[in-house]
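Suppose a classmate hands you a notebook page containing two proteins, each written out with its sequence and a corresponding row of structure tokens. How would you begin to make sense of it? This section walks through that situation. The first entry is reproduced here exactly as it would appear on such a page.
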Amino acid sequence: MIDLSDRHVLIVGGSRGIGAAAARMAAAAGAAVSLTYVKNASAAKSVVEDIVVAGGRAVAYRADAANLSAMDEVVRDAVAKLGPLRGLVVSAGVYGESWLSIDKMSPRIWDEVMATNVRGTFVSVKVAAPYLRDAGGGSIVIYTSTAGQSGAGGNSAYAASKGAQIIFMRSIAEELAPQGIRVNCIAPAWTETDTATPLIDSFGREGIVDICLLGRTGVPEDVAGPTCFLLSDLASYMTGSTMTVDGGQAMRG
């Protein structure tokens, strides 16, 4: 049984999709959860209410992951409310309008994707790391994508941003290991969320499911489980790694 009791975990982008599933599952494992959101206050409120009704502790903050001062304020306040920070999950990410060939992609679209996916990851880790260190160490989990491992024609901005997250993770894992902070990535493939499901349908659900050895696309809980594992002491000897959660898609190329 994964035990996250007496731990405060911050989930950046925890109001919807995989981030919300991770927030609920971490709380069920005993963690106090702080989370951020950008637009959907009602979704964030719903996650917090679910956790509180189940007997847990949770708070939500509206903050752009790429905004250094806003994220610094979030972490400072969350630590004051929920105690020392022991875990960080970076879930904030966008596709944007990035499903475009290079001849149609503008610098604005490229910059928007990089701002959230790359700068947002950098800012989240930069702000949280001193608190994790002061708490005696902890775990950082960054959501990347299988697109960041293999590339994705017609989606170069997103794939590049996810590849950058993996290299950033490996670099920061080396830097933070002496401080007792582990850093890992999880790379999901197609997972049913409010942003991904319409894309799955438009690209052809049958074809996507056909390349999954397990015969289905993922659901947020499929990623939330490995997240809680990486946050826990069960993964105490793991850092600098990328866990692929793809239902066996890589087996079929």
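The notebook's second entry, a different protein, reads as follows.
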Amino acid sequence: MTGFADNKQQDYEAPLDKAAFLDWVQGRESRFELKGGRIVMMTGGSKNHARITGRIAQLLANALDAEQWAVTSADLAVEIGPDVRYPDVLVEPLDDQGDALSTSNPVLIAEVLSPSSAGTGMNEKAAECTSLTSLQTYLVVSQKAPIVWVWQRDPASGTFPRHPVEIAGRDKAIEIAALGITLPLAEIFRGIASA
């Protein structure tokens, strides 16, 4: 007996650990995360959210060596302390654990803001993600205007800045030093009208 309801579509209310959550969430049609032992349902995104997420993932996949790096979007969980998050885009070193449900070794995480996630992405998730020892770059991307907030680990001190660098304008680009690549905002926001 697992302690889960026989009807897999019912929500599970008792506190969970990461392993139980990852087992529970498999096969669900809605998106969930684990925060403080509780399951949190994630809302659906807009077309702009989906388009920007897809473009970031595509740009990363095109720029990185597929024999060295894996790029995923929204389907691979990240273990952060006792919590489990599903970032919009992540990059991790390629490994032979293709059937794993989660990672704790992302090098880059990108979150596209939605109205309901603005405070979480800029504050709570930023603090959580930048606590990961493997993480080198954390991006928060607006879906309304060509603006990206960037936290990058300083190679000399090994720490993240307290506040992100804001990069704004279609003529700007994000330099991701740890991966040796540049992502042009014009490509990320191509076809997306500014609000």
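A careful reader of the second entry would note: DSSP finds four helices and 13 strands in the chain.
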